[in-house]
Amino acid sequence: SHSRSRCRLSHLGSRKRCAGSIMSSLSVLPPECLLQPFPVPQRLMLGPGPSNVPARIAAAGAQPMLGHLHTETIEIMNQIKSGIQYAFQTRNRVTLAVSGPGHAAMECAIFNSLEPGESILIAVNGIWGERAAEIAERIGAKVNTVVTSAGGYFTNEEIEQVHIMPVVFFFTHGESSTGVVHPIDGIGDLCHKYKCLFLVDSVAALGGTPIFMDEQGIDIMYTGSQKVLNAPPGTAPISFSERACQKIFNRRTKPISYFLDLNWLANYWGCDDKPVRVYHHTGPVSSFYGLRESLAILAETGLENSWKRHKEVAEYFHKGLEEMGLKLFVQDKKARLPTVTTIVAPPGYDWREITGYIMKTYNIEISGGLGPSAGMVLRVGLMGCNSSKANVDKVLEALAEALKHCHKSRV
């Protein structure tokens, strides 16, 4: 109708004047939510990750943008490689950071080390072994698992008794879903005895508890930037031994992922003998700044000092929890992961109400269980800069208040 006050767009998509303004031919208008800033809250991140990013690392990430193959970016990448070698305690030539979170490094490790039809043995004591099994299945590998209960771990004898001759043995060093740090000594020798590559996920543990990649015979190892390293999520350090490289660079088939193909990544990070780095993908340059700074902080702190602090703070936390009458999920003290503590969910309470109360009242994030520990535990992460007795005192106070104010059933 001509009497209608609002304008209609013509079928040709042209612009019309309406009430002295020009109406666009665009049918989707700018979202109102993007026309104002988003107020991001300040929180104390004491879940299993990501952890808080120190001002120094955040400032590093805000430095001017460079091209991903500029001379200065290459120098930063070289320094990152050196920092990863220190953190991993390795001299491996093929050491780099995958552009992506820990999951990307997990896929990089499995996609490159396994070909369709080859066998992998996976030690499952939490969600990360389960995830590794699914990833390996998707590329057509023969997947075998050895499984223990949540909160448990394997002896070397139990691993050797599994009469399977795999190409790769996958093992989680720090199982963040259950709060277990797994003993490593001797497993590398066991793998090499059976001509098997030893692949270790150390996402939740690296920097917070001892690990020696070369000394302990680890062939492939990776971590994430957002845990003990306190950098934003999005870069994942990974390293490959010469044994692993011999297998990977002499494959019969190409890895299923172009993006995660180690032939390309090794060149992009200057880990091969080629004189020129060829364009593969646009690396997350700002994230590289942050990762470099996080590795610089670890180098300044010293690995042994970092390991010692995480152990002392975790033990202080565990003592405080027991004094409150709360039970730790991992019974064996030696197997308790210093970076992520699992607490038996207090009987009669809804764990969601506890974590929600603590978030709302104290602005502190703690989390519930994951995978096999879902509904069974509360998880508290004390990683990197967040690993302090002051933070322990804050979370103990918050837990005590939550238990007073949250509803408890009679059961």
TrEMBL record:
All copies of the Aminotransferase class V domain together span 65-394
Q: Which residues bind substrate?
A: 379
Q: What class of enzyme is it?
A: transferase
Set out the biological process GO terms recorded for this chain's protein.
glycine biosynthetic process, by transamination of glyoxylate
EC numbers for this chain = 2.6.1.44, 2.6.1.51
Which cofactors does the annotated protein need, by name? pyridoxal 5'-phosphate
Query: Which GO terms of the molecular function aspect are on file?
Result: alanine-glyoxylate transaminase activity; L-serine-pyruvate transaminase activity
Residues with the N6-(pyridoxal phosphate)lysine modification: 227
Membrane among the record's keywords? no
Entry similarity comment: Belongs to the class-V pyridoxal-phosphate-dependent aminotransferase family.
**Identification of the protein by name:** Alanine--glyoxylate aminotransferase
Per the UniProt record, the source organism is: Sinocyclocheilus grahami (Dianchi golden-line fish)
Q: Which gene name belongs to this protein?
A: agxta
